[in-house]
Amino acid sequence: MTLYGILFYLISAAVIGATAIAITRKNLMHAVVYLIVSFFGTAMLFYLFGAPLLAAFEVIIYAGAIMVLFLFVVMMIREEPSGESVFPATQWVPAAFFCLIYVFVAAAMAVQTPGLNAPLKMLTASPIQFAVHVFEYHWFSIEVVSLLLLVALIGALNLGAGKSAHCGQDGEEEK
Amino acid sequence: MLLWIAGFIILLVKLTIVLGVVLFLAGYLVWVERKFLARLQVRLGPNRAGPFGLLQPLADIVKMLTKEDTVPDGADRAFFLLAPAVVALTALLMFSVVPFGKDITVLGQRVPLVITDLNIGLLFVFAMSSLSVYGVALGGWASNNKYGLLGGIRGAAQMISYELALGLSLVPIVMLAHSFSIVDIVGAQQKYPFILYQPLAFLIFVISAMAESKRIPFDLPEAENELVAGYHTEYSGMRFGLFFLGEYVHMMVFGGLLAVLFLGGWRGPFLPPVVWLLIKIFLVALFMIWVRGTLPRLRYDQLMTLGWKVLIPLALINILVTGAVGLM
Fold first, then answer.
1. What is the pLDDT of residue A168?
2. How many whole angstroms separate alpha carbon B210 and alpha carbon A135?
């Protein structure tokens, strides 16, 4: 096994471990921090695969922006961990069902895909190559996603504007 | 293999020098700040430890290291202990992509005067600055103190708000330099520094970077007259010191970035490149101390209005104009 292979399995194990700890924590704050660790590991995997731009975006957007919002909300509510199980059966049974389906599909894909053992060439995508590829072959998906985000932005603005009419401005327009 | 070991040794030497110089300068920046601020307020400042109080930073370090490292009873121990390290570490890591000069040749081998020339250097800086939020937010939360919590929440809100303006203000720079690599950005300023092309981006960057570093007039997370000391209320000894180390290293990173992105980096006549970079960093730090001695703290709604309703729209317009000019 090469150095890259060892690193890959180490980081993957860390990501899976951190995620597993994150979903089993009763203390929400700890769960959020373990999820951040998991995103950080994912970024390292992207970097290992020769996609530094994606790695940077993973840290900036997921670990640095979205999780800060999670943290923000958790800090505001400050819920004391209760002794009972966190989720009722109506919530975790469907989730477990879909999770099982996913595991089967992933296993089937891993078995069926030919050339799994073929070694990959060492390549690094520069930001320019990445951008040219994305906007040349996937421009339609990009436009769809940006339209969706625009709709979400207008929705958030609408919700925020309706609220601030009652309790005044308090700078709650983060997302 | 021999080449690999040589590269590794060169990297270690560079890391040691940069870390040593940055920590030393951060210590003396505290002295400069106290002296300069004192002059602005018609005081003398530290003048007992050594000539002109020059040994004051050393005395402070000894004091902080020998103090008791207290952890409050209701605190979340692990987070409480780790939070200051996050602030200091992310600030120090940002220095790894700042170039100090042209490539030099040592024993027939080219040695670039930068720790690592990432092709996403600028984004690396943003990634680190967005992670430093966690030090503030988790430190404030883990102290189990209302002032700490309020300071942490304010810090998180302020930093994610201004990070947007900070990022958007630098998009025109990337458009002009055609690269995210900071070495390339310095290279693109061979004729004129970017401040001449992008004065608006410079202004937005200065304001939002000052807000990111949480200094007066943007020091709401630690506003003394309402929050005691904000997110670091419960900290003592060297952990308290680490928060401040983070702040002063952040000031220097800000100076370094300003120099590298807008003021031509290490370029300048007569003096060697490293000296020019240090002079630029020092001038930016002096400017920040001057601002601290001059302006009062913003109100919270003013802070948010400035970020969301003034700086972000301005930065977006600036990107549009730069793009239009670039297409013509």
1. 47
2. 35
